[in-house]
Structures are given as structure tokens and as C-alpha cells.
Design a protein that fits this description.
Distance between the termini: 22 Å
Order of helices and strands: HHHH
Structural class: mainly alpha
Largest sheet: none
InterPro entries: 2TM_dom
Organism: Pseudofulvibacter geojedonensis
Shape: elongated
Number of domains: 1
Transmembrane segments: 21-41, 61-82
Keywords: Membrane, Transmembrane, Transmembrane helix
Helix content: over 70%
Number of helices: 4
Domain 2TM: 13-94
């Protein structure tokens, strides 16, 4: 049973690492794309000519909110508590499965 616990811990840690990597990738893409859009919008001589008005920032604002929500989901202690609860329930169901064989 020890090997199963180690494997479960490894898979749980890998899943957590993948979600953290996903968040950082999301942040990097957000910064790159919005920097590119800002450069496009800021070219020109006058405010109306270069497109620097509030409507062009809806993408950055909306996407920024989504990045913040993604960060909360990845780094929130509540999510960690839920994951521990899931692991506990899985172990309980596995114990029930070994006690109630279909033979």
C-alpha cells in the first residue's frame, strides 16, 4: 500500500505543478498579447488617430479579470482543502472496493 500512496502523492504533486505552469503560461501570453495590442493602439500622432480610447482596453480588462480568477483557483487554500477532501474520499471508496469484492 505504501507504493500506492507514493504514486498518489506524486500524481497529486504533478497535477498541482501542471496547474501552476498553466497559470504562468496564461500570464505570459496575457502580457505578450496585450503589450503587442498596446503598441498597435499607441502608434500615430493624435489620440483619435492612434486609437487610444477606452474601447480598446476591454480585451485587457476582461482578460485580466480572467487571469486573476485563474490565479485564485490555482493558489487558493480553499481549492487545496477541496483536493484533500477528494483524495480522502477516493481512498475511502478504494477501501470499500477492496472490502466488497464481486466474487
Amino acid at each position: 500500500m505504501r507504493n500506492i500512496d507514493k504514486e498518489n502523492n506524486y500524481l497529486s504533486a504533478k497535477k498541482r505543478l501542471d496547474s501552476i505552469k498553466s497559470f504562468y503560461t496564461h500570464v505570459i501570453v496575457y502580457i505578450v498579447i496585450n503589450t503587442f495590442l498596446l503598441l498597435i493602439f499607441s502608434t500615430g500622432t493624435s489620440v483619435k488617430a492612434n486609437g487610444m480610447h477606452y474601447g480598446n482596453f476591454y480585451t485587457a480588462i476582461g482578460w485580466g479579470v480572467i487571469v486573476i480568477i485563474h490565479g485564485v483557483v490555482v493558489f487558493s487554500p480553499i481549492i487545496s482543502i477541496m483536493n484533500k477532501w477528494e483524495e480522502k474520499k477516493i481512498k475511502e471508496f478504494m477501501q470499500e472496493g477492496t472490502n466488497n469484492k464481486w466474487e
